[in-house]
Structures are given as structure tokens and as C-alpha cells.
Amino acid sequence: MKHLIAPSVLSADFANLQKDIEMINRSDADWFHIDIMDGVFVPNISYGFPVLKAIQKYAEKPLDVHLMIVDPDRYLQDFKLAGAENITVHIEACTHLHRTLHAIKDLGCKAGVAVNPHTPVSLLEDSIEDIDIVCLMSVNPGFGGQKFIDHTYKKIKDLRSMASGRNNDLLIEIDGGVSNQNAINLLQAGANVLVAGNSVFSAIDPLIEIATLKNLNPDLIGG
Where do the domains of the chain lie, and which CATH numbers do they carry? Predict the structure, then answer.
């Protein structure tokens, strides 16, 4: 499967959000990555349902919604109604992960689990068959523009090994510090979804930046 690119709307220009949404529509990107932050689970607040519905109104690609919130179960149906096609919850925020994953699937969404940098992927051992997407945080969640954490490469390889023969279609999504400098190494390690925020929206030409990320070939040494 060709890898997917999911620009992070958190890095977009909120004074002209429709313009950036339309840019992503025209681009080679596959998803809109939407970070929902509550100021409790992470030390930042992003946006809620009104903004998500506004994005849905103009978006022509799936909304990949990443819930950085406490007690996400309370809001799963609301996020589905607001346009989410993928719903990712944090393992650190879910007391009953199996139940949450199946609640997401019952809504007709892809079910994702996000894992913070300090959390071992071994905790997913008993749930790996139930997960559609694992979002590996390669920075500490809460803010864009942070430096990539190198230990992420090992976590990707460990996770891909865990999923082998049990969930071969697992999407491994990398969120934080992704750029053209490390993207090829991430793909070669076993990732197949790249979330790119600052590297896309701070680029001179975001369309070219997205196309470059999309056209990387992990089968070629050095990209």
C-alpha cells in the first residue's frame, strides 16, 4: 500500500482556514489530521465541534480526528456526527480500551489508538487485532513545531513486528516532527501514515512539500 499523508490542521492559518483547507483538497494529501485538545490531557486547547464542522463543510478528504482529551468515550458519537471518519483515542486516557475501540467501529469509523513517547507499544499486545490505526507520538503531545524523538524508530519496528501475521493491514501513523529530512527513514522502519504540520504549512509552497512527502519511495535506498 502506498503511504498516506495527513497534513495537520493545527498548523494552518486560522485567520484564513478555508484557504488552507482548499489547498489540502488540491494537494496529494490523503487525510486532514485534526488534533482535538482539551487543556487537561494535554497542556493546550485547540478547537471543538464548531471548527470541526466548518472544516467538514469544505474538506473533500477524510477527517482523521485525534482526540487528546480525557474520557473520550463521552464524545465519540458527537465526533462522528461532526464528520470524523477516523477517531483516534489515547491509550493513556482509556480505562477500557477494548470497549472504546469497538464503540468507534460501531459508529462506522476507523478506530485508532495514540501512544505517547513514554508509553511502550507492548501495551497494545492484547488489542492489536482490534486496532485500525496506531498513532505513535514522536513528540510530546500538545504543541506543534517540536523536535522529533529518535526512539520512535524502534517503536515503529516493534509495532510492525507485533502486528505481523495478526493485523497486516495496520496503519502506523507518525505524529510530530515529520519532515522531508526523516520521512523516508520512518517509512523504511514500517510507518505508512505521516502527519505533517509545521513542515507543510511553513513551506514556501505547501503543495510541493506535500507532493514530495507523498512521492517518497521507501523501497529505494536513501529515498
Answer: 4-213 (3.20.20.70)
